[in-house]
Every structure is written in structure tokens, then in C-alpha cells.
């Protein structure tokens, strides 16, 4: 009888109290939906209102030939059930994009690989915002683009990272994404040298210039073996790229600023180059 009495009290709580409990106990939100129809209504109401929902710091998507090879998600340690990833594998701070993450002891990485039937709607529908979306995919493959478009239909990331640039990046596709979303920052990552990031390509520099009319900054991130690159050579390449971007930029773009930072850790180096529209 005591249990029944307790359930009746929970079901009869005022709506404003129910809403507060839901916000404080997100990890149990699925269980709270079962208390009563009103509890279920307010839980669904919480999902629909993005203002007070948690952020997703980082979401990583690896797509090959129209199949999702891997999904990796960074969230707070107590949030996996809320985001529907409690069955995913946890792992320590990842190094799949060297130099991108400062690390946060309050966050945990979760992964699902291979992901044969990914439901990308659940985590994105339950977050206020996605800070960083990392994409590893051939952007010329139409099947890959269908999956990536589905992600953008659900969430607009603050920052987009294109990982492992080994060829054409499909400039029209990326321009359409940053023009129609709230994206503020674009990062291109390569572990195969600045040539893969377009340091010698007028077409790529033209894309960077056009993208800077839509977003405040673009960053190029490159990693490699230290003995394979000289600081002076990298600096000359960066300056050459900045000159090309300025040459192809439209008059409306204004002044373009560039800066670079070279970090060495053991036998490896990490070069960050940032272009901003002044």
C-alpha cells in the first residue's frame, strides 16, 4: 500500500514541480515518463523545448560508401541514458583528431562501431546545441552526403571539422551547409601535409575566401612527424596560402588576417593555421 500511495502522490504533483524534477533528473527521464500521462506529457514537452536541454560538446561521424562505420559522442558522465547511448562503449579521451581536444574530466566518450542502424535523431533531438561536428567521409560520394545531410536536418553545429582531407572536399556542399546553418567555425584536418589542405590550390583558396564571407574564421590543422617538416618551410607555405586567399577574395570580404601556431610533442608536431575576416 505504501508503494501505491507514493505513486499517487507523484502523479498528483503540480505541473511546475514535475517540470523542475525532470530538468534535475534527466538520467531518469524515461522512467519518469511512465509515472502518468501528465508526466509523460511534460517529459515530451522537455524534449521539444531546446532552451534548457544539455549540450553535446562533440559528435564524430565516420561514413564510408553510404555506411556509418563509427559514431563517437562526447557528453557528461551522467547523461548517456538521457541521450539514448547507455548501450554504447565507453573509452578514454580519444586521439583520433590530434590537437583538437583539451580534455574535460567531466565528459566521457561513447562510441558505436560498426553502426549498422544508427538513429541519429535521438541524441540531436535531445540537445540544445551541438558544439563540434567532426566528419570523416568522402564528400564526393552521394550516399555519404545523404547521411551527412540527415545530421544537418537535426542539428546546426557551431563548428564543423572535416577530417582526413585527401582530395576534393566538395566545396559547393560545404558552402551550402555553412550558409544555411549557424556554423561559426570551419576546421580542416590532415595528417598528410599542407598540400592536402590546399596550400597550392587556387580553387581551394577561392573556397576559403568565399567561406569567409559566411563565417568568421577557418582553421587548418595538420599533424605529422617532426623531422619531415621545417618551421621555416611551413611558415612560407602558410604565408603563400594567405596571399592566394587575399588575391582571390572579393572586395566585400575586407581584410583577411592569418596566424599560425606550431606545437611539438615528442616526435610529432601539430600546426594550426587560422584565417579570419577582419
UniProtKB/TrEMBL annotation:
Protein name from the UniProt record: Uncharacterized protein
Taxonomic placement: Eukaryota, Metazoa, Ecdysozoa, Nematoda, Chromadorea
Amino acid at each position: 500500500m505504501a508503494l501505491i500511495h507514493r505513486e499517487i502522490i507523484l502523479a498528483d504533483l503540480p505541473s511546475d514541480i514535475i517540470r523542475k524534477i525532470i530538468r534535475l533528473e534527466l538520467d531518469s527521464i524515461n522512467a519518469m515518463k511512465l509515472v502518468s500521462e501528465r508526466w509523460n506529457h511534460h517529459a515530451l514537452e522537455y524534449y521539444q523545448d531546446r532552451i534548457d536541454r544539455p549540450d553535446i560538446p562533440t559528435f564524430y561521424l565516420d561514413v564510408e560508401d553510404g555506411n556509418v562505420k563509427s559514431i563517437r559522442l562526447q557528453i557528461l558522465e551522467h547523461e548517456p541514458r538521457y541521450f539514448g547511448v547507455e548501450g554504447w562503449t565507453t573509452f578514454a579521451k580519444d586521439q583520433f583528431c590530434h590537437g583538437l581536444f583539451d580534455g574535460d574530466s567531466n565528459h566521457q566518450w561513447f562510441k558505436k562501431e560498426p553502426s549498422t542502424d544508427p538513429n541519429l535523431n535521438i541524441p540531436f533531438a535531445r540537445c540544445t546545441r551541438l558544439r563540434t561536428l567532426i566528419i570523416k567521409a568522402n564528400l564526393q560520394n552521394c550516399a555519404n552526403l545523404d547521411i551527412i545531410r540527415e545530421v544537418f536536418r537535426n542539428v546546426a553545429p557551431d563548428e564543423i571539422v572535416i577530417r582526413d582531407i585527401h582530395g576534393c572536399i566538395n566545396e559547393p556542399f560545404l558552402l551550402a551547409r555553412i550558409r544555411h546553418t549557424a556554423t561559426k567555425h570551419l576546421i580542416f584536418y590532415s595528417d598528410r601535409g599542407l598540400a592536402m589542405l590546399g596550400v597550392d590550390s587556387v580553387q581551394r583558396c577561392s573556397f576559403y575566401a568565399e567561406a569567409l564571407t559566411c563565417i568568421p574564421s577557418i582553421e587548418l590543422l595538420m599533424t605529422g612527424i617532426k623531422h619531415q617538416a621545417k618551421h621555416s618551410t611551413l611558415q612560407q607555405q602558410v604565408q603563400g596560402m594567405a596571399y592566394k586567399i587575399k588575391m582571390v577574395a572579393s572586395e566585400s570580404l575586407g581584410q583577411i588576417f592569418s596566424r599560425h601556431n606550431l606545437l611539438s610533442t615528442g616526435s610529432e608536431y601539430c600546426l594550426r593555421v587560422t584565417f579570419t575576416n577582419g
